[in-house]
Design a protein that fits this description.
A five-stranded antiparallel beta sheet has the order 2-3-1-4-5. The longest helix has 19 residues. Strand 2 and strand 3 form a beta hairpin. It is an alpha+beta fold. Homohexamer; trimer of dimers. It comes from Falsiroseomonas frigidaquae. Catalyzes the conversion of (8S)-3',8-cyclo-7,8-dihydroguanosine 5'-triphosphate to cyclic pyranopterin monophosphate (cPMP). InterPro entries: MoaC, MoaC_bact/euk, MoaC_sf, MoCo_biosynth_MoaA/MoaC, Mopterin_CF_biosynth-C_dom.
Length: 143
Amino acid sequence: MVDVSDKAATQRVAVARGRIVMAPQTLALIRQGQVGKGDVLGIARIAGIMAAKRTSDLIPLCHPLALTKVTVDLSIAEPDAVEIEALAKVGGQTGVEMEALTAVTVAALTIYDMCKAADRGMRIEAVRLVHKSGGKSGVYEAI
């Protein structure tokens, strides 16, 4: 683990986005609440939040953080995708990029798991950091 003990504690925020692309029929099942395993978007949201809180258990050498805020927003993007955005916030000595990225990835994997019986060809795409602020390196905004 990297030594962050000399870093100043600052408010740090990270936003990540990604998407899961699927057959239009699979998206229709999600939209209509007809997936046998339950509320796909609601469960994916909770899974993403839980994953952000456990990132240090999932990513080697990642610092455990006392997150002050995590949100995971999912939206249907017609005709064939669910867009996912996660925000992670902490007042601390290290950033929260990994927490936001983990939240998006686990939310997408949860959707895959819940819908795989209907569509094994789903693709998780474009998981990326889109915003980072706080800390020594300043603000990052994806183009």
